[in-house]
Amino acid sequence: MSVLPRSVATLGLGCRLARASWKASVRAAVPSPHIWAGNRMRGTVGVAAAGAVAATTVGVCEDEVGVYDVAIVGGGIVGLATAREVQGRFPHMKVVVLEKEADVSLHQSGHNSGVIHAGIYYAPGSTMAQCCVRGAAYMYEYCKVYGLPCERVGKLICAPTEADAHHLQTLMDTGVANGVEGLEILTGEQVRELEPNVLVHSALLSPNTGIADFGAVSRKIADEIDAQSGSDVKVQFEVRAMNLVTGTSANEKMVQIEGAELLQSGPTRRVVAKNVITCAGLHADTVSRLAEGDANPKVVTFRGTYYQMKPEFKSICKMNIYPTPSGGGIPVGVHFSPTCNIRRGEQMIVGPGAAVCFDREGYNFTDMSIKHLFSLATNAGLWRFAMQNFDLAVTEMYRDLNKQAFMDQARKLIPSVTDDMVDESFVGVMSQILESDGTPAKDFIYERNMLGGTTLHVRSAPTPACTASFALAEEIVDQAAADFGWGQGREKAAPLAPFWEAK
Length: 503
Known about the structure:
Elements: E1 2-3, H1 13-29, H2 35-44, E2 66-73, H3 77-89, E3 95-98, E4 115-116, H4 127-146, E5 150-151, E6 155-159, H5 166-177, E7 184-187, H6 188-194, E8 202-206, E9 210-212, H7 214-227, E10 232-234, E11 238-246, E12 253-260, E13 269-278, H8 284-288, E14 299-309, E15 320-323, E16 335-338, E17 348-351, E18 355-356, H9 370-377, H10 380-388, H11 390-401, H12 403-411, E19 422-433, E20 445-450, E21 455-460, H13 465-484
Parallel strand pairs: 1-20, 2-3, 2-13, 3-10, 6-15, 13-21
Antiparallel strand pairs: 4-9, 5-9, 6-8, 7-8, 11-12, 12-13, 14-17, 14-18, 14-19, 16-17, 20-21
């Protein structure tokens, strides 16, 4: 875990929008005696410049805006799991999740390989490693209890040649140090006994690696949050300002959050909360700057293109088939992964690449933003990364545009796969923080006690954040409880089960 060194004293989209519309209609049907106060408030509290604090004396009224104990900015799996953790530990708290899209988990959480990682890649002792191992156990149990798609299919991390084989022992040592069970190095012949089409020198077997539908998990968590009285998941709420206001007493600090529908100028929507936790993923840096966050670290986004095996070739392998990691520290390499995704079906996907995006949400090569290009151009860490990994950066961009070059990487694992055996599939965009020396951040990063001590920012939560989400939520809420004086709260009912009541 890293902390920035700055401190200041299963319903789908239609059902979710229908529920939000119903809640709004019920509230609108109740006459409000404070409508003029609401209009005055809109004229008084403006949009703060990035990093500025607009401390304004505003009487908070629940008829004007939603009033909550905690607001979570970001409806990806980390933000949702954090909201759920707050509810579980502190059942009396009213929690709201604010998501700019029309449903939860439409970016990183819903467009990835769907792999439950065992904890092999991450530095021993890091929060990332601890949360991955604990989070995987939580994820399996959560999916089991709620009947969500999930399977412990296993994983082979393959050394295509003898020159790659030394990486396997390093990975195994790391995994064992992190508490990963069942790891075993296999010869090429042993690999072929498990996966006849995989022709490699050797491989590390991880039997506890699995697959899940993290989008479905996210939607289930959102339903849990919505079901608790006084709590909400508000979609189509793009946060544009966060300002300090006074609460019911002159000494009470609260945060007023203003936003609107994505790509629209209005109407302005508002909520007020005693405390705020931002888990904004791809937009972690820009959202944090609305509430005193530092300009650095800046988010760099990478586009991951996937192909999928045609139906008649889906059985080409059964397990996750990965190469040993590249030296650059970001791409894990083109791999084969079975999926159990409710919306996209059961597939065998091939990918992803890792090409730098020219827009924050650069799902296509041609997506480009002057603002984002400027952010890239002024990111010293990115320049150092590119210089240290020039061949990797160029080849990843080339593979993103060239199917044959992309599939050549897949053929290092399964030589029999041909270009005409795959169709185009989905694209994912992932966020990454590059340190000033050009290396990817090796742990989660938080920024604490922002905006008069009311706000906590999660500045970086890259992979394995989906796997780790329930455990990472514990860490985030631990930080929040310490900063905001919440106390300890309830404990979970059993070890390695993400529930507060017996299931």
